[in-house]
Amino acid sequence: MRGFLKKLTGFTGLAAVIYLGVIAVMANTLQPVLYNGRPVTNVPLNQPDGGLTVLRFREADAFGPVDVLFMGSSHCYRTFDTAWYAAQGVRTFNLGSSAQGPLITRHLASRYLDQLDPQLVVLEVYSETLKSNSAESLLDQLANRPLDSDLVRMTAAVGGVKAWNALLVQALRFTGEPVESREPEYEPANGHYVSGGFVRRDGHSGGLPAYEGSPTSLNGKQLDSLGKLIETVQGQGRKIVLVGQPLPAATLAAITDYVDIQNTVAAVAAAHNVPFYDFNGLVKKAGSRDLHDPALFYDYHHYNGDGVAAFNPVFLELLRRDGWLP
Amino acid sequence: MLFNSLAFAVFLPLVFAAYWLCGRHRVRLQNLLLLAASYVFYGWWDWRFLSLIVISSAVDYVVGHRLADTDVPRRRKGLLAVSLAVNLGFLGVFKYYDFFAVSLTDLLTTWGLQANPHTLRVILPVGISFYTFQTLSYSIDIYRRRLAPSRDPVAFFAFVSFFPQLVAGPIERAANLLPQFRRPRTFDSALAADGLRQILWGLIKKVVIADNAARSVDMIFDDPGAYPPPMILAGIFLFALQIYGDFSGYSDIAIGTARLFGFSLMQNFAFPYFSRDIAEFWRRWHISLSSWFRDYVFIPLGGSRGGKWFSIRNILITFTVSGLWHGANWTFVIWGLLNGLAYVPLLLAGTNKDATGVVAEGRRIPNPGEIWRMGATFAFTLLAWVFFRAANLEQALFILKRLATASWLEPLDTGLVPLHVAYGLALLVWEWFRRDGQHGLQGIPQGRPVRWALYAGLITILFTLGHFGETTFIYFQF
Q1: How far is A188 from chain B (nearest CA, A)?
Q2: Which chain B residues touch A163 with a CB distance below 8 Å?
Q3: Is residue A237 scored above 70 in pLDDT?
Q4: What residue in B sits closest to A10 (Cα-Cα)?
Q5: Which residues pair with A94 in a beta bridge?
Q6: Which region, left, alpha or beta, applies to residue B262 given φ > 0 means left and ψ of -120 to 50 means alpha?
């Protein structure tokens, strides 16, 4: 047995060295292996920065205190306009990131709640992020933040070979500019970063194909994290509300299980005595403007500047009416 | 718990360490540990269905004893009937009830009669077809006086629920596996090392070949009308590789895992796609099930003792029932029947036992005759797999019609399909050169540095090219 274990240990070491060597080569050449334009490996080599995450988290590290902290997916950082709220006398920070579901939000909350010290947390909830395993969101975090133990814990929470490979890629990437000094590529078409984490994008892409809906079902880990996230925020004596951003009617129709998922979220919210402002169901009539008008969106689910300008006054009024903000 | 999950990667070393720390002379403690580990392994999926395994084990344990204690034929038959009723009853309720209720309703409707079937819509307990067959064979063998009943309940319950082969086989016979639970096991480093190699090979087949192929297969079979014949053909070929990689991969992991604990399970796949006729294919594909049906269905029906027509009837019944074992759907029944029909000419010609041994033994390249026979057999299995994979008979016939009538020159977006085909071909080429062993990594002749580099390279391929998605093993549904 001893000889067997000795050989096994030796082999494991060799296999680990070879594996890490291969990942290191891939990480530093950053050339995804593609076939017919599709990735072949499950080693994520792309460095996404569509939501200007690098700027947001760099700013978050030196920000606070705030009245309201917005958290959630790209709906969050493309909807809640921090500059507009500042003009209304409400200090806010927008900690949204790509495809951020409760699994990732929970980790971000444990890191940033003390520092940003919000009275109220507004958690944007989107059915599709509740279905995901958060791999996309994790990749966004890994590619845009300096590697630390927080990101390792986040990777463990997401789990899976792809997630760990993504972490290894970041750990073994020695070429290119470090995240700490990297300046993101501003793409006017993709949006302008506004201090406080908001990203504004104008225009309207009428030519985009309609959303087809995801066939996958609710991810249990996301739902579990949602409950724990609410408890964490409440446990610190802070208030929290959940919100579902308005979506165009065609998109809503494509998400065939939308109502089931939102009902599940509503049940979690009710169990924790927290309101869930689902603008696609519970608050259909909010405001005088049709917040679902496709003209307010630059694609099938993200608000453009007009949408942001229409939505935020309605939402702030709602928060004040219900006593969540003075 | 899935073999390709992180949970199993933690579970296996823990059980392995605890098992050998028990000491080789404490067989009962080791068996108790294996029993507990097996129940944890199964309960990880859904602990409620553990009760079925416990009931099935308890019934057959008691029936086995009572059978050994009596010589009264009527009482012996009654006891066997109890075992059959309980085990086949579980299968009937959980697997077949809804299928037969709906099929009967459809039949009545075609006769103009109205019926509202009451369906149960219960989930299919994982592995129920495997462990019920395993315990059934135990009772039947005691009834036939070919086996003495187990006097050790822990050993018997551990035999029924032995976690490496609990949910997808190999379906072990009590005569082979049960004695291994009784005798002391000594750690054999050569056996354990080969077990690890077999686990690695199984994972490669499952995660790199089968799960990647599954992406292309699902894409094509979900909407076959959208693809031209070359893509559909590629989809069928990939399904053949998927089901082989998936199921034989599971068997390899199961056998390799059992070896780590000092157990020897039967070979379940012997490179079936190199078969020269369909009879040889069924001696090489899912061997534990084929031999189970031979011993407990075909032979009790009379086997080939009553003349050609009698044999043909028995063959067709056996293959059809085997098809139904795979799933409660007419597609599986047709698949089984097709295989039976392909077997009949061999039976009539008396050549069904001609193709034995390793094809082209001692040669690297098969001769033209062998190539033709292997190619024809493989082509037939592809045809049959269409029925196995299709959602229903209409889709299967649509696919075959499309292959025959649609233009082969339509423009096509091949996506990752050619790449997955290349993976499959690479597997076949590798296994061709390893076809005289028990698995693809057995008996590599080179020295340790080359072998270790090969294994490390395969591990790298596993984690960089493998598809680690939300996939289970296909045979879990059977």
Answers
A1: 32
A2: none
A3: yes
A4: B452
A5: A70
A6: left
Q: Which amino acid is at B170?
A: P
The pLDDT of residue A245 is 92
Which residue among A8, A43, A216 sits closest to B464, beta carbon to beta carbon? A43
**Is A284 near chain B, with CB under 8 Å?**
no
DSSP run (H or E) holding A47: none
Is residue A265 within 8 Å of A226, Cβ to Cβ?
Answer: yes
H or E segment and range at residue A200 = strand A198-200
A11 and A75 fall within a common domain: no
Question: Rounded CA gap, B274 and B429, in Å?
Answer: 11
Same domain, yes or no: B215 and B364: yes
Residue A187 lies in a domain: yes
At A134-165, the pLDDT tens digits run: 888 898 888 888 888 989 999 998 888 889 99
Q: How many domains does chain B have?
A: 2
- Shared domain for A311 and A232, answered yes or no, is yes
The Cβ of residue B265 has, within 10 Å, a number of other Cβ atoms equal to 23
Mean pLDDT value across chain B: 89
* ipTM of predicted complex: 0.80
Are B189 and A4 a contacting pair at CB < 8 A? yes
Strand pairing report for A239-244 and A276-278 = parallel
Report how far residue B388's alpha carbon sits from residue B327's, in angstroms, rounded to the nearest whole number: 9
Task: Lowest mean pLDDT of A139-143, B31-35, B36-40, B260-264, name the range.
Answer: A139-143
Asked if A41 has any chain B CB less than 8 Å from its own CB, the reply is yes
Same domain, A184 and A218: yes
Cα B61 from Cα B184, distance rounded (Å): 22
Give the number of beta-carbon pairs within 8 Å between A and B: 65
Contacts of A222 in chain B (CB under 8 A): none
What does the mean pLDDT of chain A come to?
A: 86
Tokens 């034929």 locate to B73
Q: pLDDT at residue B462 above 60? A: yes
Q: Whole domain around residue B379: which residue ranges?
A: 190-276+355-477
Q: Are B44 and B472 in contact (CB under 8 A)?
A: no
Please, what sign has the CA dihedral across residues A177, A178, A179, A180?
negative
**Residue B110 CB neighbours (<10 A):** 8
Instruction: Mark whether B162 and B212 lie in a shared domain.
Output: no
Total count of domains within chain A: 2
| Contact assessment for residue A259 and residue A247, using Cβ atoms and an 8 Å cutoff | no
Cβ–Cβ under 8 Å, residues B67 and B144: no
Structural domain including A311 reads: 53-135+179-321
Joined together, the tokens standing for residue A120 give 């109220």
User: Which residues, numbered 36 to 75 in chain B, qualify as contacts with chain A under a Cβ-Cβ cut-off of 8 Å?
Assistant: none
User: B452 contacts in A (CB within 8 Å)?
Assistant: 11, 14
